[in-house]
Structure formats: structure tokens, C-alpha cells
Amino acid sequence: MIIGVGVDFCAIDRIATALERHEGRFEERLFTAAERTYCRMRGSPAQHFAARFAAKEACVKALGAPAGLAWHELEVVRVEAGRPTLALSGASLKVARALGVEKIHLTISHQANFAVAAVVAER
């Protein structure tokens, strides 16, 4: 049974500007150390940061946009030959459990200047 669905669309140049303007503070506030390492190892870090930002926003929407969630509690991780998924912790995990969420499905993509992510929260 589907508990929630979320989609987010993000302009890569917007993320690139924020990364440059805030000299590390932006990425430290929004992304875990593992996410920052992964994105910085890529040829186009802003593209990968934007995809992860879209994934986090899509997850918040799938969970019903509850108050009190922290960005670091929503972490994009790679499993099974690189497939992305979300690891929840803290308040985000508590909300998901209260909703009966047993599995989170994530898909992310990026092309040209845009990144998109979709999340399905399933019971």
C-alpha cells in the first residue's frame, strides 16, 4: 500500500550558485559527510548535489511535509549496483514509522540544468 508520493525538480545552476556563494556552509547544512564526499568526487558536483536535494525534498513531500525534519536525517545512499535509496534517521525515521512506512523507493535523474527525484513511501 502506498502511504505517500513526492516529486521534486531542482535547477542545477541554483545549487551551483549556493555552493559557490556559501563556501561549504550550504553543503554542510544540507548534506551528510558521505553525500558531500560522493558529490565532490564527481566531475560535476553541483549536478549530484542538486539530485540529492531533490530527493530530500521529494521524501519530505511523501511523508506529508511534517515539521521538525532535519536535512541530515534524510541521506541518499547507494545500494545494489549503485541504485539510490534514502536512509532515514531521527525525526524522519520516527515520522515514517508512525505512518507505517516500511520501504522507501527513490529514483533520481539529471540532465542539462535540471535534476528530478521521485519518492514512493510504501507500507
What's the CATH superfamily, by name? 4'-phosphopantetheinyl transferase domain
- The level of helicity is 40-55%
CATH uppermost class: Alpha Beta
- Major sheet summary line: 3 strands, antiparallel
- Low-pLDDT runs: none
Assigned CATH architecture: Alpha-Beta Complex
Mean pLDDT: 94
Given the helix and strand composition, which structural class is it?
Answer: alpha+beta
What fraction of the residues are assigned to beta strands by DSSP? 25-35%
Can you put this structure into words, describing what you see?
The chain is an alpha+beta fold and 123 residues long. The chain has a single domain (2-122), classed as 4'-phosphopantetheinyl transferase domain (Ribosomal Protein L22, Chain A, Alpha-Beta Complex), CATH 3.90.470.20. 42% of the residues lie in helices and 33% in strands. The chain is built from five helices and five strands; from the N terminus they run E-H-H-H-H-E-E-H-E-E. The chain has helices spanning 12-21, 25-30, 33-40, 45-62, 90-99, and strands at residues 2-11, 74-79, 83-88, 103-111, 114-122. The strands form two sheets. It has a three-stranded antiparallel β-sheet. A two-stranded antiparallel ribbon has the order 2-3. A hairpin with a 3-residue loop joins strand 2 (74-79) and strand 3 (83-88). Helix 1 packs across helix 4 (45-62) and helix 3 (33-40) packs antiparallel against helix 4. The longest helix is centred in the middle third of the chain and has 18 residues, at 45-62. It is globular. The N and C termini lie close together (5 Å). The mean pLDDT is 94.
